[in-house]
Specification:
The protein is an alpha+beta fold and about 280 residues long. It has seven helices and eleven strands. The protein has helices spanning about 1-15, 25-45, 50-70, 75-115, 135-140, 215-220, 260-275, and strands at about 125-135, 150, 155-160, 165, 170-175, 180-190, 190-200, 210, 235-240, 245-250, 250-255. Strands 1, 3, 4, 5, 8 and 9 form a six-stranded antiparallel sheet that branches. The protein has a three-stranded antiparallel sheet with strand order 2-6-7, with no helix packed on it.
C-alpha cells in the first residue's frame, strides 16, 4: 500500500493544483465528471449490456401488466413476484462491473479526502497534536512515561505543555500557528526522531490529519504521509485539523464526509445524464 500511495500522491497533487484556489463545490464537480465517465466506460465494457436491457424490459412489462390488470389480484401478485425475480437478476448483472469499479474508486476517494475532508488552520489558529504510543511502551521505556520531546519550527509554537494520559498511551499538545507555510514537526524519543507535517494555508491543498502505522487499512485511509517505521515506538500521530466545509449559496455543512455525499450524488446524476449519449445500459 505504501508504494501505491507514493505513486498516487504526486499525481493527485498535480491534478488538484489548478483547483486549489476554487470553491470546494467547484472542485467536487470537476472531479465527478471524469469519475462518472470512467464508471460508465467500465460498466459498458464489463457488463452484459444485452441481458441488462432484456431484464429491464421484462420489469417494464410486469409494471405494465399491473397497470393493465389492476382489478386482478392474482395477476398483480404474479407480476410483483416476477418483478422481484428480475430485480435480483439485474443486481447480479450489475455486480460484475462494480468489482472493477470499486477498487480504483476507493483509491480516488481516499486521495480526494485529503483535499476536501479537512480545512487547514490559519495564522492565529490552533490544533491539537496527539501521539499514540505502541501498547508495549512500558517494555521499551523505564519510568512512568516515555521520554517524548516535541520540537517545532519557527512559525509554530506550543500553547500547552505535553499532556500524558498513561491509560491511553497518548501525549497531546495544543499548537498555535503564527504564519503561513508548510511545516514539519519532530518528535524525539531517545535516538528515534519521527516527523509530522502541518500546513497553514487558505487554499485547498493536501492535508494529513494522521500519520499511520504500517497496517494496510491505516495506509489506505491516510495516504498523505509515509507510514511510521515498523520498529517505531509510536503507533500513529494525529493532528486535529478542522472538518471540511461544503457550501452552496447560503447552505453550508461542516463535516469531514459531507463532500463525499455531494460527490456521489453528482457522479450518479452525471452518469445518468451521459448514459444515453455514450450508449450505456444501466
Amino acid at each position: 500500500m505504501s508504494t501505491i500511495n507514493s505513486l498516487l500522491r504526486p499525481i493527485f497533487d498535480l491534478l488538484q493544483a489548478p483547483l486549489a484556489g476554487l470553491p470546494v463545490l467547484v472542485g467536487i464537480v470537476v472531479w465527478s465528471i471524469p469519475v462518472s465517465l470512467f464508471a460508465l466506460w467500465v460498466f459498458k465494457k464489463t457488463s452484459n449490456q444485452a441481458q441488462i436491457s432484456a431484464v429491464k424490459s421484462k420489469i417494464h412489462a410486469c409494471l405494465f401488466e399491473i397497470r393493465l390488470f389492476n382489478d386482478d389480484i392474482r395477476a398483480i401478485l404474479r407480476a410483483q413476484g416476477e418483478i422481484l425475480r428480475h430485480v435480483v437478476h439485474y443486481q447480479g448483472l450489475a455486480l460484475v462491473p462494480m468489482i472493477f469499479i470499486l477498487p480504483p474508486l476507493v483509491l480516488v476517494m481516499v486521495q480526494l479526502h485529503s483535499f476536501y475532508g479537512f480545512s487547514s488552520i490559519k495564522p492565529g489558529g490552533e490544533a491539537m497534536l496527539t501521539t499514540v504510543m505502541e501498547s508495549n511502551w512500558r517494555d521499551r521505556w523505564d519510568g512512568d512515561r516515555p521520554p517524548v520531546r516535541l520540537e517545532l519550527p519557527a512559525g509554530l509554537r506550543p500553547v500547552t505543555p505535553a499532556v500524558w494520559v498513561p491509560e491511553l498511551g497518548e501525549f497531546s499538545w495544543q499548537i498555535a500557528a503564527d504564519d503561513w507555510g508548510d511545516y514539519e514537526l519532530e518528535l524525539h524519543l531517545g535516538d528515534e526522531v519521527v516527523s509530522k507535517t502541518l500546513t497553514v494555508t487558505d487554499s485547498i491543498v493536501r492535508l494529513s490529519p494522521t500519520r499511520p502505522d504500517r497496517g494496510f487499512l491505516g495506509q489506505l485511509e491516510w495516504p498523505s504521509e509515509a507510514p511510521l517505521a515498523k520498529d517505531s515506538s509510536i503507533k500513529e500521530i494525529n493532528l486535529g485539523y478542522p472538518e471540511g466545509t461544503v457550501s452552496l449559496g447560503g447552505w453550508s455543512v461542516r463535516n469531514s464526509y459531507a463532500w463525499m455525499v455531494v460527490f456521489f450524488v453528482l457522479t450518479m446524476v452525471i452518469a445518468v445524464a451521459l448514459k444515453g449519449p455514450l450508449g450505456v445500459e444501466l
